[in-house]
Design goal:
Length: 619
């Protein structure tokens, strides 16, 4: 979940690394640091955001402004803390006893305590509370005998258990950066006489679009002469000619574009991102083409069941997908939290199809679930946003959501694009299985194609929603209630509020309120209902009556011109009508805006909420 960047070339090393860290800061912002190679290893690191590190560099002007570097070599890191609190000492890079080796790390070293005890018995002195520091000391220990940087790194990695994306430099061999990957992503950018490595394409795209994705269990050696890749436990150089890819990403896409926050920008990008998710895949007749899974249609159609596994917001999308697929394609679907699925020896049959949903395509638990399902013989299919991500590469096949880069930690446009893709999959399979008639398919398709315009209409309510946020920003608890397709939306609305405003919120099926949560309701409890006109509309009205009778404050997401709900509500947000299975794409938009405005009014950093990172690449 941390951000890593390393550079070799002729540019100003400080400018390259700081710029890279700023683009990676959404991956972790507890602390930041850099290591630069000159006559020795210059290290500067500080707790706090990258801007604090950047300001601190002004105190080292002679080094920063030096023109004596014939070659710029360095690594940098922005941290999301796992082992050891955020502090200057625990910030990366971490060094050995001699100060000759510097390491930046994303992941978790599971056996670090055993290794640390052994190294301390050999005389090594540790300065931090991190698991990462054992790596630098291990390399130091092996270098005493090998006197070879690459060999020492490989020997050290033989002793490490856990996950890692690594960047390592050594003052003994100052024209090399070694990167390694076991689980956590590392990408190497190939420029004109320069090379940049990072944990995310956003740090690379300003310099080059030509990249190599380091695979699980590989080590990369970067020098002025080029890039060499090996298996971690081998000296054999791998052929890289077929592994050079072009990033489908532009610099403009990862800028704020005049919005105060990435989250607001991404909420307002949804008409376009939804259109991109369905572009070229559907027509008004309800005919769907998903080329990514075309070769696996027989296995999909003849599967015993689907298992959808994901984490967080993607899990909520998967739950909506379950309702869609079971109702319209009559396929049994289980929805699993990947973090639980991977550890409970799940029953997986060879004729199961396992769908993995992940915005980043790098979510550690979801990736582990993929490998487990694959090992058990199931067909594994990815629904991801990031082209070239690990889940995309390791799945048998899949569907990209094409939402574009999502920088804000709280997912918005990726969620709605996931719902669009799940709608397309449902429509495709429902027609292929004869469960959806041509007439119904055409009706669903026309509605789906109209969704981007309906989202634009909802976004025009921004000022109205902002005014509601002003009324409720100081409340300490919220309850979100929905039924049917909109129950997962209640979960997602509550999650958004928790993530970015730090207000306690719970999502519940509206009918389950009577089995416990109703005890919480009084005149100080805001209750958000998704009360649109769908198949369970009348049931939701009854649940609203129950809240009203107990003086709860009701905020309702309602279908346009609905007077019944308005009479029961303190406030309403009206959204257009659409087909039941597509309603979550619309009903979630006001909840995204409500959470955003409440968080801003409370002075929270919505793009970088405390304790959270965008891509969860550690367990």
């Amino acid at each position: 979940m941390c951000g890593i960047v390393g550079y070799i070339g002729k540019r100003n090393i400080f400018e390259v690394l700081i710029s890279g860290l700023k683009r990676l800061e959404y991956r972790g912002y507890d602390s930041a640091g850099i290591a630069i190679l000159s006559d020795d290893v210059f290290i500067l690191k500080r707790a706090g955001k990258v801007s604090k590190l950047e300001n601190e560099l002004q105190n080292f002007a002679p080094i920063v402004n030096s023109t004596s570097f014939s070659l710029s070599v360095g690594i940098a890191h922005t941290r999301w803390a796992t082992h050891g609190e955020p502090s200057d000492i625990n910030a990366h890079p971490l060094t050995d006893c001699t100060g000759k080796f510097a390491v930046v790390h994303n992941g978790i070293i599971e056996n670090y305590q055993i290794l640390k005890k052994k190294l301390e018995s050999l005389g090594h002195i540790f300065k931090s509370q991190t698991d990462t520091e054992v790596i630098s000391h291990l390399i130091e220990e092996f270098y005493k005998n090998t006197k070879d940087f690459i060999t020492s790194v490989q020997l050290a990695l033989n002793h490490i258990e856990g996950t890692y994306g690594l960047g390592i430099v050594c003052a003994h061999e100052p024209e090399k950066i070694i990167v390694a990957r076991k689980g956590s992503p590392i990408i190497i950018g190939l420029g004109d006489g320069e090379y940049i490595a990072a944990s995310d394409p956003s740090a690379i795209v300003a310099l080059t679009r030509n990249v190599i994705y380091l695979e699980h269990g590989e080590i990369g050696i970067i020098s002025p002469d080029g890039v060499e890749v090996r298996k971690i436990h081998s000296d054999e150089k791998l052929d890289l000619d077929s592994r050079i890819h072009e990033l489908a990403l532009s610099l403009d896409e990862i800028e704020k574009g005049g919005f105060p926050h990435f989250m607001l920008k991404e909420i307002f990008e949804q008409p376009e991102s939804l259109l991109n998710s369905m572009r070229g895949r559907i027509n008004e007749k309800g005919e769907v083409k998903l080329g990514g899974i075309a070769d696996f249609m027989d296995k999909i159609l003849n599967s015993r069941r689907f298992i959808i596994t994901a984490c967080g917001t993607s899990w909520h999308a998967g739950l909506v997908g379950k309702y869609m697929l079971e109702q319209y394609a009559e396929i049994p679907v289980d929805v699993e939290y990947a973090s639980e699925f991977r550890y409970r020896n799940p029953v997986i049959f060879p004729d199961d199809v396992v769908w993995l949903i992940s915005q980043s395509g790098e979510t550690a638990d979801t990736l582990a679930a993929l490998r487990l399902a694959k090992a058990k013989g199931a067909t594994v299919l990815g629904i991801v946003n990031v082209v070239g991500s690990t889940i995309a590469r390791e799945s048998h096949a899949g569907v990209y959501i094409h939402a574009g880069p999502e920088i804000g930690v709280a997912s918005t446009k990726a969620f709605t694009s996931q719902l669009v893709v799940l709608s397309l999959i449902t429509l495709l399979l429902g027609r292929e299985k004869g469960k959806i008639s041509p007439e119904l398919a055409s009706e669903i398709a026309r509605e789906l194609i109209s969704i981007p315009e309906k989202v634009k209409k909802i976004l025009e309510l921004n000022d109205h929603i902002k005014a509601l946020a002003e009324k409720y920003k100081d409340h300490h608890n919220f309850l979100y209630l929905g039924r049917g397709f909109n129950y997962p939306v209640a979960l997602e609305g509550a999650l958004k509020l928790k993530e970015i405003s730090y207000i306690h919120a719970e999502g519940y099926p509206a009918a389950e309120m009577k089995h416990g949560p109703i005890a919480l309701i009084d005149e100080n409890m805001p209750v958000v209902f998704i009360a649109v006109k769908d198949g369970v509309y009348e049931k939701v009205l009854s649940n609203m009556e129950e809240v009203k009778a107990r003086k709860g404050k009701i905020i309702s997401i309602v279908t346009e011109l609905d007077d019944k709900v308005a009479k029961l509500s303190d406030h309403t947000i009206q959204i257009p009508q659409t087909f039941d299975m597509l309603m979550p794409i619309l009903s979630v938009i006001p909840l995204q805006l409500l959470a955003y405005h409440i968080a801003v009014m409370r002075g929270c950093d919505v793009d970088q909420p405390r304790n959270l990172a965008k891509s969860v690449t550690v367990e």
